[in-house]
Request: fold
Amino acid sequence: MPNPTAAMLVIGDEILSGRTQDTNTNHLANALTAQGIDLREVRVVPDEQPAIANALNDLRARFDHVFTSGGIGPTHDDITADAVAAAFGVPVGVRDDARAAMQAFYDTIGGKLTPSRLRMARIPQGATLIDNEISGAPGFTIGNVHVMAGVPSVFKAMVAGLLPTLAGGAPVQSRSLRVERGESEIAEELAALAADFPDLSIGSYPFRQEGIFGTNIVVRGQDGARVDKAFARLSDLFAENRA
Amino acid sequence: MPNPTAAMLVIGDEILSGRTQDTNTNHLANALTAQGIDLREVRVVPDEQPAIANALNDLRARFDHVFTSGGIGPTHDDITADAVAAAFGVPVGVRDDARAAMQAFYDTIGGKLTPSRLRMARIPQGATLIDNEISGAPGFTIGNVHVMAGVPSVFKAMVAGLLPTLAGGAPVQSRSLRVERGESEIAEELAALAADFPDLSIGSYPFRQEGIFGTNIVVRGQDGARVDKAFARLSDLFAENRA
Reply:
């Protein structure tokens, strides 16, 4: 059975302006790979409702899961909940369970559930909440869409809570070999190897370090025995060039 | 006149698997912002021809420029040139000007233009070349699509060569204020400020550092005087909370 598929939708002007380097995608990608869910596409869109809703509707139709990051804070530019509700055609408003979760959080830290904070309890109808033990405001799942915070520490906590509830597939096995030969010098051997192992993905990633041109070769696949077999051939091929 | 718009298309299984953290997008985003070209969308797709061609055709129809990164190396998994040619419906093959550029590069460094390397001289019909002073193999521009390497040092060199040839707009001015108050505490003041300056983008980015909850507030816009005016009000508002 093929692995479940996923897309990531990053919502944030700050990524598109270059002000912030996105790291949530890389974190999610590694977590999904470990669980056997294939991340197939990533998009970054601005904090604008039509852009978010259009991207979401395209992605949720094409993949088993869509994970979003960003735009669920307390300020005027946090419009993800509204955009998701618009994409699903459902109403959005402060929900009792979200309000209760936030009240409990602020009671614990000794803070107040102000009107601005209460804005973060606005949840589209039909969604279930994703806990936020870091800063209180919940994420949510609606249909196959999982809406999470953009702040990396909160995003990570939400991913950690959410992923165990999703069915995974066969985790991808991967082995990599670092060889001190340029990518173009070994291209033919790699193509031949790839042709012999059509069930595996064999990638090559050139690097230059301290004046040395080299290549990281990565063999990936769901069948560990096949990965090991291809890796053994690879190791023999480049026995003299390993770094 | 509105600024030119742009999208970035990152081609790479290694980004989607989590093995590699993409940094090319952030580099391009900053370079475009400085030149007054608005980056409006980013996509990451796997090394597969239909995924690349479909994303490319969608993006090039919607934005003034599309910049791609990755998949133009010498190995079997480098299929970007073919996918771009397919998207434009033009043939692709080794071109004399690309071969000459690569021959000149290898003559300089004392290397050979092997068959694998020559694969990197395959350029879609009608494209113009983008120089690569780092590793020889050229990128190319076809229509409004600029195809560049994935290796960050090469990508940066190509961006540096390409961008001065593109018409820019009004560079975005930006000023930011770091305040030691949580985002939800200042949400109402920020919303009021944003309502008074509808021509500006006022973003807020929460942080937690050494136990302190704070917010970076970023004011952005094309009119420097308006940015300064909003920033002055912001500074007055939070005079006691500046960090």
User: Anything to note?
Assistant: The mean pLDDT of chain A is 93. Chain A touches chain B through 67 residues (CB under 8 Å).
